[in-house]
Amino acid sequence: MQDERVRVYRGCILPLDLLYDVEHDVWVRLEGEQARLGMTDPAQTRAGKLVAIRFKRPGTVVERGRALATIESGKWVGPFPAPFRCEILETNQSGFERDILLANRDPYGEGWLLLVRPLAPEQLDDLLPGEEAFQRYRQRIDELGLTCFRCAE
Amino acid sequence: MRIRVVDLGLVSPVRSQTVYHAVGYAFRSDAPPTILLVSTTDPYVSIGYHQDAEREVDLEYCRQAGLPVIRREVGGGAVYLDHNQVFTQWIFPRELVPVRVEDRFAWYVRPLVETYRQWGIEATWRPINDIHVRGRKIGGTGAASIGDAEILVGSLMLDFDTKQMARVLKVASEKMRDKVFQSLEEYMTTMRRELGTMPDRDQVVHTYLEQCSAALGAELEFGELTPEEEAVAAELDARFASEEWLYQKGGLRESGIKIHTDVRLHEAALKVPGGLIRVIVRTHGGRIDDVSLSGDFTLLPALGLAAIEQAVRGLSTRREELAVRIREVYRALGLQSPGVTAEDFAQAIAQAAHSAI
Does B76 reach chain A within 8 Å, measured CB to CB? Predict the structure, then answer.
């Protein structure tokens, strides 16, 4: 991908216009008072093809690090953690109903998971902007020996 | 590295599931990696975390038969379990576990595979998370992130009750149930089946622990659960037995009954002008392995249906390829089916098979 708005390392794509919680492998797109969240390319690669997802209900308030949804892939089950304390406004239930591999195919676009309202502004400061996140991810990708690929393909 | 091994022997059905969750939830960064070995005193049905109990399991039968149905926080499908499996449950700190899920299963499965091999059974790891013996599955595995721990679960398959397994699933027809049973018989195996005799649990466990020690390069220490782990397990016993936990709505899941990694069963129905076509399809490695057609349409001569079923075996699941072959059968046998075409059969089969892969 030649797009200047993304960084690519060992096949792992990281758009520069997003914020990242590198520890939890979550991307964040601030949209006014709201934030859209999804799995990063390294996250979907590590998990493999999704076979199931269950969202917490809109209206639920979730603490940082706790599960906004549970994800199942190749028999692994784990949380999709909140990068900050937030209230769930909307989930991409209908998207995943149509195609359970949405986050594998298009992690930063159609494969978004939830739209939330951040409730702890100070926790947003802990998120890393694209370029800085990319540097951290490079290190992490090396440590993990990861090479990203779109599992759905 | 030291690993704590806790062999709990036989415990209640619910405890055989809650115990590894409890060790996971109680896990602290200074806790040792733990291998739990456990079997259930009585049979039960375990369902995957994201499954819908009412949709997947014949709950009425289970109630009558006195079989508990217990949701686990690990993925996968419904499975009938009894005292003839030894569950091998690993609760490890994150930093000791391979990062990629597939690598994690390869790492976890190795001592299981080696144990079978020591017993003269030609087991191999079949990615992502199956163990196979010459194309038959001898147990699956699962993984989860629970609390601060990474969990891997699987079993030493001394024996497995395929008949009960097929009985507890909720299926749309008894014909489908027969197909499930036949497929399990055809595509599953156990130590008993491979060896011709039931192996001794303690001896198998002994082999397994030797293999764990070798694979992990670790010293194994027999231990017990801590009071905190016991307390969490007791709390979870109540939660896992509650109706609220069992009946929680299933997540979005792919469909079809998975017999093993390569083999799936699925049924579908297609309404066409001449009636309803019902189809049960088994795919093996993405190709049609077995098809069963029925419905309220008219097809003459009647043997044509079996001929179509036979003709599509081994084909890919592409509608066009199926249609070409079915048209040939129509021509060769002079089949007539008012309001139902060769293309309709092809579509019904492809539709089912695609959602089954």
Answer: yes
